[in-house]
Amino acid sequence: MPSLQATIDPLPVNGSEPENGEPKDGRVDQKCDSSNGNNLPTNLYPSITTSNHPNLNHFASSHLINFGTTFLPDLIVSASHLSLFTAPSPGSSSPYGRAITDWTSGQMSSLLGHSHPEIVSVISSHASSLDHLFSGMLSPPVLNLAKRLTSVLPDGLDRAIFLSTGGESNEAAIKMAKTYTGKFEVVGLGASWHGVTAQASSVQYHAGRRVGWPLIPGGLMLPSPNAYRCHQGFRKRKEKGLKGKETSGEGGRWKEGDMIDKGNGKESQEENEEEWEYDWEAEMLYGWRLIDQQSCGSLAAVIVEPIQSSGGMHVLPPGYLRRLKTECEKRGMLLIVDEAQTGIGRTGEMVAVNHDGVVPDILTLSKTLGNGLPLSAVVTSHAIADVCAERDFLFYTTHVNDPLPAAVGDKVLEIVVRDDLVSHARRMGEILHSGLNQLKNRYACIGDVRGRGLMAGVEIVEDRRKGKEPGLELAKRVGDRAYELGLWCNLSTHPSFGGTFRIAPPITIGEKEVREGLAVLEEAFRGVEGTLPLY
């Protein structure tokens, strides 16, 4: 087996040889593939082919710790813009095997696409000159990022700290909320995901809780707002509303006698789905009623995602965040909003809270801010930051406010604002959702299409004409076929996920690329038995 260590020679730029051994402008090497005319990045591992690279599952079981995933069969040797490239076949004239269109931006992170030339340039220059410092030292990238980030956020999000991962930023945010309030109970939403650190995983309810030992005390849960599979007791007729005696607080619509479970989201044949709508407010207030009964009187914060991505791409209903903040204020709690995936333009706003005009007490960012590099942020108000400092808030880590990732984050924000990518994401999102809804109209196995901007979820069911039975195996077959055809859409079969494709391409994607991806997805549905074409 050849060495997996890359041998890196001076890289030519745009087909030209480097001068004095250095690229002209820090851009990645672009070689022209004569087979398709596209510019391709250099393969740093040219000696590895499909015949001599290791069996990945065997290699992983021998040398890697399993962290809760199943590895895909292809060895990815390069990535550029929307494309991932696999190792080539022996004797191939191309430096790559397959090109796979990445509709999940890596781990929902490569906001501007893989190997964006300006990001590459920033990484290269800072790796050579200003990469890492003692945590008590400040550098221009950190100052620049703090100023630029707070300038594009709503007033009241005034000061920031820069960390590495989303879990780490949520850990810091929760600790900050506890420090500020002097209380310890934290409320999360059902089907939520906030990371694998101790406090973050204690207030998420998607996966990872059954560890066999106590989690951090004080974790409480509100129902997951799921308009597609809401409990039958939290539905109301669109025309007349529900009848009955109100038992919830002001503004609630939950009534005695409405809590009738009809089972797994299925609708009776007699019921007309169009006559009903989701009563999220009644469900939320019912959840708060249970929390108030369970609480020991130490409610510190709520943490919430604007779109529950890992839970199935569920968008919080209009008005939900505003009502949630009102309920927090009633109880002296802080509202923490986790925008790991929704932040920095993906939903058609700089941050998704702008859709509702809500300013959280603490905002966390990660994934998209670093364009795939480990960079996260916690942003809060002057008042909260000052009180936490007075109370000796401590979150001193090795890589806090590191200059290299901060420089990348600053460049990401510069590009997003300069190129008006927020508006672009909104326009491309309209095209994406229109195309996905056309697929829904054609295939009865698509139960729901949801999302916002360039975040979309496509939920697969057995047959939506008969009900909402999850089509987990069917979804896997469609996903496998799409991958064979060269399109990667993340799919999980976890019960709280429900067989939903998560689609989140880089926000630099163009209209032609959106439509090409939709065409591949159409071909995948068309070629798999059981998708139930309607015409």
From TrEMBL:
Biased composition (Basic and acidic residues): 21-32, 241-269
Segments for region (Disordered): 1-45, 239-273
Statement: the UniProt record of this protein carries the keyword DNA-binding: no
Cellular component terms (Gene Ontology): mitochondrion
Polar residues bias locations: 33-45
Matching Gene3D superfamilies: Aspartate Aminotransferase, domain 1, Type I PLP-dependent aspartate aminotransferase-like (Major domain)
InterPro entries cross-referenced by the UniProt entry: Aminotrans_3, Aminotrans_3_PPA_site, PyrdxlP-dep_Trfase, PyrdxlP-dep_Trfase_major, PyrdxlP-dep_Trfase_small
Keyword Kinase in annotation: no
Entry protein name: 2,2-dialkylglycine decarboxylase
Pfam families recorded: Aminotran_3
Species assigned in the record: Neurospora tetrasperma (strain FGSC 2508 / ATCC MYA-4615 / P0657)
PROSITE patterns noted in UniProt: AA_TRANSFER_CLASS_3
Similarity comment text for this entry: Belongs to the class-III pyridoxal-phosphate-dependent aminotransferase family.
GO molecular function, one term: transaminase activity
Keywords: Pyridoxal phosphate
